[in-house]
Sequence to fold (306 residues):
Amino acid sequence: MRLFKWMVLLTGLLLGIGAAAQSKDARVVAFAQDTMKNDFRQAQVFEVRDEVAKVPGLTFIYSDAQGQTSLLIRQIEQFIEQKVDVLVLGTSDQRAVVPVVSKAYKAGISVIVLDRGIQGNDFTTFINSDNVRIGAMGAEFLGNKLGGKGLVLLLEGLQTADVTHLRTKGFMDEIAKYPAIKVIKRTGNYLRKDALIEMEKLLAQGVRVDAIFSESDSMLSGVRMAMVAQKIDPKSVLSVGCDYTSEAREAIRNANQTASILFPLGGKMTVEVTQKLLRKESVPRHVVIPVKLVTRDNVEQVAPIF
Fold:
């Protein structure tokens, strides 16, 4: 417990130093990210950082809540105390952060909710992609490839994140059009290690699936690791991931992954919206970034998100 308190204090001190080091005239963009252990979440932060660096008069700071919502809330409180100009939020819990986000918004801070939505209404704009559509795309693709029958593993992300439920809804609604396809669900929390463990459990139980829809490419990577360890060729199972990372691109090239759904990081759009907000221009309440299915047919034409 004492160590945790010191970690929180150190985080606060580091944030304070970052803010103090900025020019008095600089406008500060602060990214409160739920975890940097997830490849996608880390890349989001870095994309916003790199885009901010291109804009004169803007500076960037961020925090890493290490997957702890209580720490994320404390870090947002620190950003409020520092009176940052724009707060970018990445959360794993759509409900718990609502009061502190509302506090930031009411303090006059522009709040950009990125990727994962929240249950409250006190924010400036929400930037994401259509997660229901993502799930439906995965189901439609696999349904056709399977010829309408088979056993499919649906590997879900964090159960406290809205994107998980939206992708699952899209997938289940679409796959219901194929009554001869059975779906089993497991939770991998968007993490490679957790997905590997879940796949190991299934294989130990003798479960063999015909196809996999993973709500992130990182989890699908963990699944492949478990399969290879059991001498199961990943090419023998249809698999669709989400995000379209460089790792997924290479796996698709080698036929170890069947497809991925491009899910943009949203960092570039975030900074575009930030500049409009700081110029006092109106911005949409909801900004939707298009998604795309990537297979071996177009893998060389579509750039991975990182």
In short: The domain at 131-262 is CATH 3.40.50.2300 (Rossmann fold). The first helix runs from residue 2 to 20.
